[in-house]
């Protein structure tokens, strides 16, 4: 309609407004289409929208009394659904057969949420399917529908709150107070359904919805799209889904520590370049900067500080070349640093003494500074005094790289200001290359091959994973083989179990297992039950258990933690993210 009539409205100088409450409808259609594409390997997926005929009757009074009903029909040539399964797939926490779940990832809460949403819109979803022939899901909605008041919708739930067990046999309308409210609690009117390829996007991780809305408004004022989540454990999934250019993150999240999330991001080669702006009620700026945060803001945040924050997100995202200042009077060492760090994404400037350095710092803006403390015209600490007096936000990242014997007093001062202190040695250049890449937010995959290799080799040498013993639990031998091969590259010693019972037996006989990777979808004893058994044994109280869960099973995240998981990762498993997650728990 917009493309058809826009030119007419412009020619006649008329305003043409289209108002559409599309968020819930979009969510239903995306869920249904996602399932069709997931379960269809050949043939086609069709999407048809039409006015439904009036010669049929439903059990839905909203549809039976509506003047006009619109049908949204999605047909596929996929694996189909058996008659007995058709009766339960819309119920919460119901999954397909084990083999289907392992191959395709399961349907999770998607269909139950979709039916709950269709109820909210006064409609219903009908299914026709044959095994190996495909499926047809049709969403029927009345063109006009008045939503009942909230009090009428939730009376029954308030009298008796739904638990996970009651949800299995509860009609989909009961989701109104439970799952649907939880499903949309993160959505504070954000842009997740309206993100285009070229949009600049910020991920807002904040459980205070009032402050989240404020950040959302500021992002929009700066022409930046925003997605909001109230849970730190959602960050990796949201990054994979929305590819944000920057992240703002509270530290005190309801489900996990923001520090742990920050560590996970900054130890992952393929995520560490994303600038993270920590916004916290606790002033621990130095800790945040040392862990790789781009900046650290303390609540309550002033209007001017928020303006500077989004100015920096906008400018930093558009900055293709980062500015690095090297302050060192030793020509040979300086050249070695330049040769190891240079690239098309980095502009390197040299200062040979304190006077040159201070002049450059006053005249130019640098993203990172490498500072030797021993200089011909004074102490490198004089440069730090100049940086301390600089009120620009955010502060320039500072890496102290020196052979000087640093006193306790000097180290205390350096620790308050420097992002990293590296003592020069035979192998310290590799660490310097790695830390410079981190604080310049360089994209790992775009680094020169020699530099990438150098950083990865440094990680393998210093890696906390090296020599650790991991128990891999999965009933699919192919998964065991693939993950074992990948994990052994990090120097991990891998044991495997093909069932929950076997995993419990191995843990009973083996004393020094450091981490367990637990698949959830296993026959007989699934991952939840296995983890509960493991946690009942006193010696396993502090054992790190990472659950491997299907991506579509959003409700399973909390269930994993409740069953004893220390953390979780979603399928398909990204080995880089898995290794960074293990580093966080094992360090």
Structure description:
The strands form five sheets. This protein has a five-stranded parallel β-sheet, sandwiched between helices. The protein has four domains: 23-182, 2-Layer Sandwich (Heat Shock Protein 90); 201-318, Response regulator (Rossmann fold); 322-462, Response regulator (Rossmann fold, 3-Layer(aba) Sandwich), CATH 3.40.50; 469-586, Rossmann fold. Helix 2 packs antiparallel against helix 6 and helix 22 (500-509) runs parallel beside helix 23. The chain is an alpha/beta fold and 587 residues long. The N and C termini lie far apart (57 Å). The longest helix is centred in the first third of the chain and has 16 residues, at 23-38. It is globular and about 95 Å long.
